[in-house]
Amino acid sequence: MNPIKLVAVGLIVAGVLALAYGGFSYTKDTTVVKLGTLEISAKEKQTVNVPM
Asked: Shortest CA distance to 32 belongs to which of 23, 21, 43?
């Protein structure tokens, strides 16, 4: 199989899985305060819904 066919099959499988699960979630790390060498960050959980 050439690389283009492998990428195409991978995208199709990812699309089918996204439709089966209805979406996915990920954690985003954001910097809240940065004061000199002190840095305070927060983690936010984001959810992406895949419409049918």
From this structure: 43
Going by C-beta distance under 8 Å and a sequence separation of 6 or more, which residues neighbour residue 38?
A: none
Residues (pLDDT < 50) of the chain are none
**How far apart (Å, rounded) are the C-alpha atoms in residues 41 and 44?**
10
Give the residues across from 43 on adjacent strands: 29
Provide the β-strand partners of residue 48: 24
DSSP H helices, 1-52, are: 3-21
Domain that holds residue 13: 3-49
Give me the number of domains the chain comprises: 1
